[in-house]
């Protein structure tokens, strides 16, 4: 069945810089925002943008991620003739291996893509926090008659070395691409969101697959090759909130952003909803001893202490006399009486004993508590 555009969602990242948060868990499956997982934002963007043919490419520690996305029901992607399809690495009769890079992941799933005979291929990542209308991106791609369109945003100059940087003409045609430059000429950073003309891209994928010196990566190999051949590459300026939650610090910052006054509607935007599973816990209980200031508290929570700029996922309990400040408590966390937490991230089902004090100062990375490491931290 022909589709104008097929979406390929890259969700196989290990997220090693997230440390204990991605121990035995793919980065896109990490809980975020009180009731979601990171991948929910990309999948919700697909639904809201009417992109209903979505291949989700998984790889690292995928069990929890597969359970979460299922057949795509929360995002209206449980459809008969398109919808969501999970695409894991597989072995053919000639042998197989892991996805070697972003371009290789697409190459290994050409059969899936060509089954829909698309005109365009949208490639997105499952590990960023943002709201974006991909249909507007596609319309921009058509308007400029581009071979490739790359979504970009302006980043602080001091952070340009973390990104692929694009240099463009006044009409946003790309003439140069720098992968994580030490001295950038522009602060327009690639968001890792691409629209390709499929009949153009597949030729470059074929050439790249046979190059033994290639990293099989869009940013390092495919896009520079297209630029060298003078193809029409255009940038699409994104304006809005976008966060790469690739480190403990940025993950914590993104949660604090949700509590900032200028972003408090980000999760409460009725015109652009973020969807996920509902565990059907009962409503939260804020008892007579509780004090709650600028915090998100999910269903199933029982709060008897003080919350200040903190986020509680579902089924969290906070004991009497406890103070939780600028902290993130994942589902099922139990906080005892007279506990003090500041800049702490507690993973699922962690139990924090009475009278515990854990503080990460402003010049420290937030403390991550997991069942595996909490004894060591408590005794430190």
TrEMBL record:
- Which key words are in the record? ATP-binding, Carbohydrate metabolism, Glycogen biosynthesis, Glycogen metabolism, Nucleotide-binding, Nucleotidyltransferase, Transferase
The Glucose-1-phosphate adenylyltransferase/Bifunctional protein GlmU-like C-terminal hexapeptide domain sits at 288-357
**Membrane spanning stretches:** none
The Nucleotidyl transferase domain is annotated at 7-260
Provide the E.C. number(s) assigned to this enzyme: 2.7.7.27
User: Which SUPFAM superfamilies does the UniProt record give?
Assistant: Nucleotide-diphospho-sugar transferases, Trimeric LpxA-like enzymes
Q: Name one GO molecular function term.
A: ATP binding
Q: Which residues form the signal peptide?
A: none
Matching entries from Pfam families are given as: Hexapep_GlmU (PF24894), NTP_transferase (PF00483)
Q: Which PROSITE patterns is this protein grouped with? A: ADP_GLC_PYROPHOSPH_1 (PS00808), ADP_GLC_PYROPHOSPH_2 (PS00809), ADP_GLC_PYROPHOSPH_3 (PS00810)
Q: Which GO terms describe its biological process?
A: glycogen biosynthetic process
PANTHER family assigned: GLUCOSE-1-PHOSPHATE ADENYLYLTRANSFERASE, GLUCOSE-1-PHOSPHATE ADENYLYLTRANSFERASE-RELATED
NCBIfam families, per database record: glgC, PRK05293.1
Subunit structure, interactors included = Homotetramer.
Indicate what this protein is called per its UniProt record. Answer: Glucose-1-phosphate adenylyltransferase
User: Which organism encodes this protein?
Assistant: Aquibacillus koreensis
Name the gene for this chain. glgC
